[in-house]
User: Which sequence fits this backbone?
């Protein structure tokens, strides 16, 4: 019986709560500690964790256990100290380079993968509308669509990159485990709706298959000599009649539940879990829909019926408040404070 101690870094992330749920189900005697890096509000308490501590406490007390980073900040924090090992999978320290989106785009070009036309300064931009996002992965962060220069957040413009706006809905993702450039397991999905709308955490996600996506991901992973877990993201470009590469997330992704339930090898290789989960083809996350807007949530209320799994984590006060405020206003506030 598993009596291990687990330290979950950034414990309020959705992907953290998914992992905790699996650990609780299959290893009920395990001791699970939530480790906060920045947010020390400790709102979730004993309902999910046996103990909640700050990162300083981990360092000073030298607490031993299996360290599981979830989001970008936690993954970066642990990778800066060395490789991160989960089960038989090692996320190698050199994967930190993937956090630089400009570096990753250059590697995609070298691997023969098509990317959107990309600019790194305002002076280089040749046309609008465009999509902008941060050059370095920080988890969430500033992103959006600009129809003219004034739409681009004025503060920290030097930290953004700009890309042609790929005119199609949704995002395609290939989640994977890899070792020394070889894929061990993959799962492909279509993120039909997300928050924010231009791309982020999945609201409505479903299983998907296209050999091109798998082929492009294989090329990227091999070219990078990638080791660890990750998610490669693509957009479909109607003009090219093909997919264009957007980025690789070298971290656990917010929709990892879909991959874990459909491909049991993820759970086996990462956590030594012999999964008995039912495969789910579609998942709807109502708390994220509410965070996008209350009206959006109502429009997708039909998802509570049919063959869609409803997956919800604690709806915090923040989610409730943001659900009553149009997302574009929240984005304006976010862009002006970062």
Assistant:
């Amino acid at each position: 019986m598993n009596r291990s101690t687990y330290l979950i870094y950034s414990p309020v992330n959705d992907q953290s709560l998914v992992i905790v749920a699996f650990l609780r189900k299959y290893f009920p005697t395990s001791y699970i500690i939530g480790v906060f890096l920045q947010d020390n509000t400790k709102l979730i308490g004993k309902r999910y964790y046996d103990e909640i501590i700050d990162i300083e406490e981990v360092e000073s007390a030298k607490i031993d256990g299996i360290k599981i980073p979830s989001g970008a900040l936690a993954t970066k924090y642990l990778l800066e100290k060395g490789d991160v090992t989960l089960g038989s999978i090692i996320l190698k320290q050199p994967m930190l380079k993937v956090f630089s989106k400009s570096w990753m785009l250059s590697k995609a070009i070298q691997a023969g993968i098509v990317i959107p036309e990309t600019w790194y300064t305002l002076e280089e931009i040749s046309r609008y509308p465009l999509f902008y996002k941060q050059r370095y992965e920080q988890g969430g962060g500033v992103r959006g669509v600009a129809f003219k220069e004034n739409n681009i957040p004025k503060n920290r413009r030097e930290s953004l990159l700009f890309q042609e706006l790929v005119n199609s809905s949704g995002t395609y993702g290939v989640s994977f485990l890899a070792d020394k450039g070889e894929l061990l397991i993959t799962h492909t999905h279509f993120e039909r709706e997300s928050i924010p709308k231009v791309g982020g955490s999945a609201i409505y996600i479903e299983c998907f298959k296209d050999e091109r996506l798998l082929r492009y991901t294989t090329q990227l992973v091999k070219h990078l000599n990638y080791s660890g877990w990750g998610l490669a993201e693509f957009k479909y470009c109607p003009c090219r009649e093909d997919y264009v590469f957007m980025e690789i997330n070298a971290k656990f992704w917010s929709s990892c539940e879909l991959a874990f339930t459909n491909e049991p090898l993820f759970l086996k290789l990462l956590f030594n879990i012999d999964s008995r989960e039912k495969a789910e083809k579609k998942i709807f996350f109502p708390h994220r829909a509410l965070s996008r807007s209350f009206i959006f949530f109502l429009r997708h209320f039909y998802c509570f019926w049919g063959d869609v799994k409803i997956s919800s984590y604690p709806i915090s006060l923040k989610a409730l408040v943001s659900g009553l405020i149009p997302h574009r206003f929240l984005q304006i506030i976010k862009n002006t404070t970062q």
